[in-house]
Amino acid sequence: MTEEEFDAFYAAAFPRLTGQLYAFTGDHSEAQDVVQEAFVRAWDRRREFLADGAPEAWIRTVAMRLAVSRWRRARRWLELVRRTPPPEHTPGPDPERTALVAALRTLPEPQRMALVLHHLCDLSVEQVASETGAPVGTVKARLSRGRAALARVLSADSAESADPAGKGEREDDRVR
Questions:
Q1: Is-above-0.70 flag for pTM?
Q2: pLDDT for 61-82, tens place per residue?
Q3: Are 126 and 114 a contacting pair, CB within 8 Å?
Q4: Which member of 22, 54, 135, 176 lies 3.0 to 4.6 Å from 31 by CB, making a disulfide possible if both were Cys?
């Protein structure tokens, strides 16, 4: 089967096979997925398809087997999930991490990206430059400015948490 013949066969058979697999699976999206996967597998065998004599039957069989395999995999996963009880308590992020994420959100996106890639993903400055498409000098400037901005935001947050009422010790109406 040539590429043009295969394309014509696909256009004619795909809706019909999807309808048949929809009846089998009960899920239209799943039916489209398995029929598409069967056609992908058939593409590699398209030259031999005329010799088989029943290309639509071959694709239907492959699609049905794929659907059954997916169903079995989903069932095994569901059984595994049911056997594994959920954790009693999942702790949330610690306050330092929450403060860091909040502070990072205040930064411009290029600075935030540079800081995350360099400090959290452990990439070198050169690797950050390569990944972001920015010159090395620009990455260094973003890191420097980002760290300075983070220090300001985090030190302001820690000052507020140390004195939640916002009042310091007063002496002669001055805040120390």
A1: no
A2: 999 999 999 999 989 988 888 8
A3: no
A4: 22
The closest alpha carbon to 39, from 68, 73, 6, belongs to: 6
Degrees to nearest 5, angle at CA 37 with 33 and 39: 120
Give yes or no for a contact between 10 and 39, defined as CB atoms under 8 angstroms apart: yes
- Please state, in angstroms and rounded to a whole number, the distance separating the CA atoms of residues 59 and 36: 9
Q: What is the DSSP letter of 85?
A: P
Q: How far, in Å, CA of 113 to CA of 44, rounded? A: 42
pLDDT at 174 over 50: no
Cβ neighbours of 114 (radius 10 Å): 29
Q: 111 is written with which tokens?
A: 């600075």
Q: How far is CA 101 from CA 43, 45, 52, 112, 153, in A?
A: 48, 52, 60, 10, 11
Beta strands in 92-162 (DSSP E): none
The total of other beta-carbon atoms located within 10 Å of residue 35's CB is 28
